[in-house]
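User: I'm putting together a teaching handout on how multi-component assemblies are represented. Below are the sequence lines for each component of a complex, exactly as they appear in our records. Could you produce the 3D structure of the whole assembly as structure tokens, so the students can see both representations side by side? Please keep the chain order the same as the input.
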Amino acid sequence: MAKRIDVSGLSAFYGAHKAIDDISMTVEPRSVTAFIGPSGCGKSTFLRTLNRMHEVTPGGRVEGKVLLDDENLYGPGVDPVSVRRTVGMVFQRPNPFPTMSIYENVAAGLRLNGTRVRKSELDAVVEKSLQGANLWKEVKDRLDKPGAGLSGGQQQRLCIARAIAVEPQVLLMDEPCSALDPISTLAIEDLIGELKERFTIVIVTHNMQQAARVSDRTAFFNLAGVGQPGRLVEIDETARIFSNPSVQATEDYISGRFG
Amino acid sequence: MSGVTMDRTPVAGSGAPQPSYSLRQPRLPRWTPAALAAAAVAAGTGIGLGAGLSSHMQWGLIAALLYVAAMYVLATRVEGRRQAKDRLATSLVWVCFVLAVVPLVSLVWETISRGVKVLDVDFLTHSMGGVLTIRPGGGVYHAIIGTLEQVGIATAIAAPLGLLTAIYLVEYGRGRLAKAVTFFVDVMTGIPSIVAGLFILSFWIIMLDNGYSGFAGSMALAILMVPVVVRSTEEMLKLVPNELREASLALGVPKWRTILKVVLPTAIGGIATGVMLAVARIAGETAPIVLLVFGSQVINNNPFDGAQSSLPYYIYEQWAAGNEASYDRAWAAALVLIAFVMILNLVARGIARWKAPQSSR
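Assistant: Of course. Below is the structure of the complete assembly, with chains in the same order as your input.
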């Protein structure tokens, strides 16, 4: 199920502007890796290069290699569509499809791909995914109601259910809790703890405590300077990053001395 | 008064509230605008009668001016300058609203009152075949058939073309080609209908030597319809949040399926409204019909061969005939045309409401 990600020499551009510069790291399977760093340092851009969503942005361009268990995502002949089926994504703002019911939202990944699935199988997938996202109990009696009618936290868990319904290998989360209240955040964090048994999870967060709570490894990103591309400062065990980081800038950032 | 109070009792809060710091201010009663409007209308009528002005329009304008002026003066006296400016803006907006509604209401009223005279089932189900224009009788059936067929074919051509163009511009279009397409769509928006008619006339009828037909008219109508459909669809597609596209793409859905299954369903209400409004817009076109469809007195169900009629053409023709019976028929046909457009608008609104994304529980 879960795969290892090996990034080497990765740079991403928006047109002529270089957003991130020469990043290399390894993301272990069945673990949670957190990206922290000041706004605009390229965490989200880097996350989006991991499932080729970066090139959806007009002018988006990538150089370097991302190996998913020895297969280069940016190799010749690789279809971005199949990459995205393997590497799922949850966005900052909950974005359920407004025209679809809760059921249809979860089934969207299968249905929209045109996969022919029997109704009973689809029912099973929807139930399993909603249970996986800890949402089943709350919505099982109103699966045909619009997904946009749920609360913000429920919508975000719906989006997670939608993402895991297609059985990806890796789950990318771009600040999944930044639009949620503390209780919903707690629910999602618990969920992340459960999901890491099955998936490789990468999460971008601005909340240092959250990174410390949920992640096994933490990567700190920073800007080299104003107008310069973002770069990876260091990546290490979360406990080490938060207690005894090897770079002074990381300690400054975590203790709130800048950024 | 406040100054006096201040002098006597310097301690704040013990005297009468100072006007400049008070939150309460004198307000005109709620019925003031309505009462003033009634008074202004009465005054306008009085002045109009007294001065012997024949045009009711002039009475109305006098009343409107009196109302705006009186409201401003009264509000300045009672409520203060800031409130008076607010009242002035409000009354100007109301006056403009009334000025805009008057012609609309009078048009609808005029059409209905004159149109119902000969409008009955017979009128809707008979053509003008064998009816002398100076005699009463006859009907509009052939024109309704013509309008439905011509507008239907024009929509069948223009709606897919416009829809696909808009999808290209919003979802795929980058660089020069997209800019060129946008530019030419803008240019097409400004094409006068007679020019579209002349183009099809020279191209289809003179150069390719085809006869007059409803289809020729449809092509000219389609030329007029395409830019309207492109513009409205483009706006609707732009309103679809980018997050939805990304959510779909991130699920591993190819772009074309994302557009088909996520973007279009989200925008379909607005797109349908836009197409319906474009249909309503071309249903009243006369110039290309006169040039290309030629007009006819009899029923011709085949839009691809031979002259047809259409509602706007029928109105024009009956009015040009210049006698009592044909005037009545022209008004009745005008009423039918307005009703047709109105029904299309209502259908469009119904679709928009029915298909709108359900957001709240």
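A couple of points students might notice: Residues 81-115 of chain B form the longest helix (35 residues). Residues 1-15 of chain B have pLDDT under 50 and may be disordered.
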